[in-house]
Design brief:
By secondary structure, this protein is mainly alpha-helical. 54% of the residues lie in helices and 2% in strands. It contains 7 helices and 2 strands, in the order H-H-H-E-H-H-E-H-H. The chain has a two-stranded antiparallel ribbon with strand order 1-2. Helix 6 runs antiparallel to helix 7. The model has no long low-confidence stretch (mean pLDDT 86).
Amino acid sequence: PVHGEMFHRVTVDFGTSEAQGQSTEALLKSSRETGLSPQWLELMHAMGRYTLISAGTGELPVALSGIWGNDWNPPWDGRYTIDANINLAISGVSQGNLPEAMASYCNLIARSMEDWRLSARQVFGYRGVFADLCQGWRHAKALMHYPWVGGAGWLASYVYDHYLYTGDRDFLKTAVLPLLRET
């Protein structure tokens, strides 16, 4: 019931009720043969929402899933990759009316701040934060084989975008401005 309520806050409907009951395999085959269909796009939207809600509305945001996460020991050690992966996973949170997923994302950022500050001091001798390309959920210290100085700014942009979308001034004061000051 909790996930169902979140799932149904936003839907995509291209008026394709006749496709209801078609298997995913049939829709995939049809899309390959004749191009993307409205039915296929509705299904992809629903699948993405389901994945984000199921994996990204708890204590931590969604990490890589699907074929990249089907092993107990993934090649990247299950770290968050913040060059596009987590960013793309949460990019539709505001438009999708999923503040729970934004809270999970902000929780990861809050948990990472001390390590990011330490990395900025140790790597560059700077104040503020340095979010590396890859990090764990427990520790976010810089791995010098992934020096990516744009990480914190890119992560902060989604938090700022959430404020722009919602107009939530409390969120601006408690989440956005402190992060932007550090960045």
